[in-house]
Design brief:
The protein has about 120 residues and is mostly helical. The protein contains four helices and no strands.
Length: about 120
């Protein structure tokens, strides 16, 4: 991948995203949730700050899913047998995804509360 033209590097990145979509249920679930957030934003038309915060969080969650998948695949390839250190590394990566997901849910709840409670 080093010293490849930009369009080729974009192709490699796109391949990684598509592969994660095809192989990882969590990636598909998080993507559907992100689409739901975007649809809600389009429907409710909030202030730009809400767009920024919620889209940033969606991007971070999806990026964390990609990192988690990459780490799991690399570790499974390098050390197929169960090992406590590898299990801990995988658990930490999954914890990062969980933390960002919970933060996203809290942020979305704050957005909905402000949107609906300030209107009435």
């Amino acid at each position: 991948m080093k010293n490849q033209p930009f369009y080729r590097r974009l192709g490699f990145a796109w391949h990684g995203i598509v592969s994660a979509w095809r192989t990882e249920m969590s990636m598909r679930q998080q993507s559907v949730a992100a689409v739901g957030v975007v649809i809600t934003l389009l429907w409710l038309r909030p202030a730009p700050v809400w767009w920024a915060l919620l889209l940033l969080n969606c991007g971070l969650v999806l990026a964390a899913e990609l990192f988690n998948s990459a780490l799991e695949h690399a570790l499974d390839h390098l050390h197929p047998a169960p090992h406590p250190a590898i299990g801990l590394a995988k658990d930490c990566a999954a914890g990062a995804v969980l933390l960002l997901s919970v933060t996203g849910i809290a942020l979305f709840a704050c957005f909905l509360c402000e949107t609906f409670l300030t209107q009435y």
